[in-house]
C-alpha cells in the first residue's frame, strides 16, 4: 500500500494571496480522487506541490510517511507518475511516439544504458492499450494533440508507479477517447493504482464515482463522497453558476446540468 498525504498545505506566488491554505489530502493505492474546480483556482499548482515540482509555502507532502523532498527524484519516479495538462505549444522533440513513451522507463535505466527488448514490448503494449499502436513509428510532433496526450498516459504506465497523478487527462481528447481514458482510470484503480486527477467536468467525477474534492476561488478545499460533495448547492457555489445534479430515468445515471431557468430569470 502506497500513500501520498498532504498536511496543512499552503502555496502562494510571492506577494500574492495564497491559492490555498491548510489543505489536507490523502491518496492511497486503489483509490480514485477527482479534484474539481474552475480555471485559475490552483488545481495544477496543487498537483505540482504533490509531485515535488513546487515547494509548498507551508505544510508538507509525505510519500509513505517520508517528506517528498527528502526522496531522490529517481526513487519518487518509481512511485509517482505525473501526466501534466496538455500544452497548446507543439513541441519539436525528434522522437518517434514509441521512443517518447519509452522515456517512462528512465527511472529503471542506468546511465548510458538503452531500453531493452522487454522495454520496447512494454511500450508497444501501452500504445495498444491507449488505442494508438499504429502510430508508434510516427514522429511525436506529427500526431495530434489528443494523440500526444494519450502517449503521455502510456509513458506514465511505463513508469510502473503505484500512484498516477493526471492534470485534466481528457482536455485534448474527443468524446470517444475521453470515455476510453476514464474507463482506463477505473481499470487502473481496480488493479491497485492510486489515481488523482483534476477536471472541470463534474460529470466525470459522477461517472468515476470517486472520492471528490473541490477547490474554489477563495481557496476553500473540501473532500467527500460523490453524494456528499456533488450537490446542487456545492457545485453552484464552486463554479458560480446555477447547476443541478439530476438522474436520467432511462439509465438511472446522475448527471450535472446547467439550470437554464435560473439563468434566464
Automatic annotation (TrEMBL):
<dbReference type="GO" id="GO:0005524">
    <property type="term" value="F:ATP binding"/>
</dbReference>
<keyword id="KW-0547">Nucleotide-binding</keyword>
<dbReference type="GO" id="GO:0016887">
    <property type="term" value="F:ATP hydrolysis activity"/>
</dbReference>
<keyword id="KW-0067">ATP-binding</keyword>
<comment type="similarity">
    <text>Belongs to the ABC transporter superfamily.</text>
</comment>
<dbReference type="InterPro" id="IPR050153">
    <property type="entry name" value="Metal_Ion_Import_ABC"/>
</dbReference>
<keyword id="KW-0813">Transport</keyword>
<feature type="domain" description="ABC transporter">
    <location>
        <begin position="4"/>
        <end position="242"/>
    </location>
</feature>
<protein>
    <submittedName>
        <fullName>Iron ABC transporter ATP-binding protein</fullName>
    </submittedName>
</protein>
<dbReference type="InterPro" id="IPR003593">
    <property type="entry name" value="AAA+_ATPase"/>
</dbReference>
<dbReference type="Pfam" id="PF00005">
    <property type="entry name" value="ABC_tran"/>
</dbReference>
<dbReference type="InterPro" id="IPR027417">
    <property type="entry name" value="P-loop_NTPase"/>
</dbReference>
<dbReference type="InterPro" id="IPR017871">
    <property type="entry name" value="ABC_transporter-like_CS"/>
</dbReference>
<dbReference type="InterPro" id="IPR003439">
    <property type="entry name" value="ABC_transporter-like_ATP-bd"/>
</dbReference>
